[in-house]
Model the fold of this input.
Amino acid sequence: MTDGRALRDPLDDFEKRVVGVDGVEKTVYVTGAGPAVVLMPEMPGISPDVARFARWLREAGFSVYLPSLFGVDGAYPLAEARETVVRRACVSAEFRAFAGGGTSPVTGWLRGLARQAHAERGGPGVGAIGLCFTGNFALTMALEPVVVAPVVNHPSLPLDDPGGLELSARDAAAVAERIGRDRLKVLAYRFENDTWCTGQRFAAYRALLGDAFDGRVLDDKDANPAPPPFFRDVVGCAHSVVTAHLVDEEGHPTRRARDEIIAFLGERLGVTTEADGV
Done:
């Protein structure tokens, strides 16, 4: 054990699948019953904290589709991941980590995953939750009609533009049109002094989406003071609201954020949830 967390999560309570979309195959971990939620991992991968969040979603009554996009599945997030995972992802053709790159191509694959998940699980639609590196992907996924509940958590892309959005101009206009037309809401979280997801970025979302963007900001003092080494040494600030920096105590602001996300998904996907009991 390190900092009270498991060194490795075997993910053995998930069904491990290989899912193909347009000829591209990726590993996806699936669990639960009920309407589907696509939960995208944060950098540096599907950590025990990300898996814990997936299990909370499962216990609240959702099916969870957790795609492996980078890193070692189930690994405890160590500082060494900066060299072995982060740098690799930043130069990958699937991700456009820097300003001017437009929309990351991997979001097309994720929209296909959402279609498959909806076909399997049914219901009024699919939820999409992005975290950190994948934060904005949840918004881009709203270009897929089955996605009706996007949750954008501390989106960090583009890395070199604190007020930028990881969207091409064309996709930004299409997302705004779809959100307005179908009266969707976009729920988002960040810590106040997060240097990876700044107030400028939330202002850019608000400018694009207007009142449909519900951006919520937590005080830095509410972050878990003992996150895993990657978040302590590489991220270096309060950042991951519902994973690495969550404090799992009743009434704590980060746990309330978790419960608000679950309630938002339940409202949009037709699931009666009792988030405080998960």
About this structure: The radius of gyration is 17 Å. The first helix runs from residue 48 to 59.
